[in-house]
Amino acid sequence: MAKYLDPNATLTFRKVFCEQKDLLRSFLNAVLPLKNDNEIKSLEYIAPEMVPENPAKKYSMVDVRCTDNNNRQFIVEMQMYWTAGFVQREFFNTPKKIFRPLEEKDGYDELRQVYCVSIINDIAFPNLKDEFYHRYVPANIEHPENTIKGFETIFLELPKFRPSSVSDKKMMVLWLRFLTEINEQTKEIPAEMMENEYISKAVGIVEQSAYTDAQRMAYDKFWDKIVSERTLMKGYFRQGHAEGHAKGRAEGRAEGRAEGLAEGRVEGLAEGEKKGRKEQTYEITKKLIEMHLPMDSIIQATGLSKDEITSLM
Fold this sequence. Notes:
The protein is of the alpha/beta class.
């Protein structure tokens, strides 16, 4: 029997960060781009969103209203991603979070800073091979030094994290080691982690002995869904890409040979590839529809319009 449960599962993650304010405060102070005199001194939980049935979808893990050492207030939303395909949605959804804290009586001058911390259990930025910490703010394309203040999105790619890649933030290293090194195969926790009061407390929370049989069943069900959904998503894209590529090349060659001219052959290959890619996109879209993904997610993933997607239903 495993001694520890993986802290990335919904059940364990919520027990650590949604029920323990001191642990969440420590984690946010470690990963947010805050100066020492602006660290969070207190926080208040905001009612979380409902977790969807499909855990591979993006969902809010915890929302909090924070107050720093200078009594500045700001909002933080933290969530977990299990597929990289939903990352683009965060750029669309983040601006809307700025307005959520407003009451009807408030004006635009009452808008608070919003941080969105997205923990990704997948490779979302393959071109940035050695970077796991990504910080995004809206900027002027021509003058990137000019940014719009109000919200920032932080992406943490857990598969890329290595302790040696962080030299100046010990607490960030400890928390990310907690999320990446502890699972059901863990037998002993390194001494340097247990020496920290916050990490030691978090480790105690994910000990299997602290969970009932019903909670363990829910934990196992969560992982079954994660494995199934990730396997299906990757399989659909691989199959669609292979079929579309093969069909496109075959059609392109056939059309090119029929014309018997070099120019016709090039045009035929290009047209065939185009048709193949479109066929591939349609096949993938049909699979995503079968998975009951939200319309906006399918639009983001495929680039098709709402009308095109509706016609495939």
